Amino acid sequence: MRIAIIGGTTLLKCALEQVPSLKSFNIEFFEESGIISGHPDLCIFNEVIPQTVKDNQIVISAKFKADLSKPFKLISLVELIIDKLNQKIYAINKVKFFPSKRTLELEGNIIILTEKEAKLILYLVNNYPRGIPKSELLKEIWEYSTGTETSTVEVHLSRLKQKLIESSFPDFLTYKNKFLYIEI
């Protein structure tokens, strides 16, 4: 996932890169919005007025109406970023994934996910196309210490795959050589 910061200084970028819950995001800094390449998942406008209003943006300012007024606490911005990204809907094959509702939807059929299942799918989507090693999943999703031997990943994955099969959803998860992949 990409977060673009437009305007201000690179200090904000450096601060956000140190936040553990944002480590998997690609955070980029741009002096002005006209030079952004591609389509970031979220744009943070720092003392810059966006040309159009969109759902995937956050405006920070001390001078004009904004989502976050200066001075602000970094945790307030992080919470706002996570909230904005959780409103996002992801397409996985033909399946829609709603992280904020913890659901998968396909042609009117809905699968309700557990907190860990939703967190796992979101982590895989945010790191696509990279396969995620079991050790990283244990650390990031289940908060286990490094070197822990457990079958937690396999058990959760088996239950999630069973939910997909029972609801006639496509199986978009592949576990191979202790790496988990998502097919988007």
TrEMBL record:
Pfam families for the chain: Trans_reg_C
Residues of the DNA-binding region: 87-184
Annotated OmpR/PhoB-type domain residues: 87-184
Keyword DNA-binding part of the UniProt annotation: yes
Matches recorded under InterPro entries: OmpR/PhoB-type_DNA-bd, Sig_transdc_resp-reg_C-effctor, WH-like_DNA-bd_sf
PROSITE patterns for this protein: OMPR_PHOB
GO molecular function: DNA binding
Keywords: DNA-binding
One of the GO biological process terms: phosphorelay signal transduction system
Protein name per its UniProtKB record: OmpR/PhoB-type domain-containing protein
Organism of origin: Candidatus Jidaibacter acanthamoebae
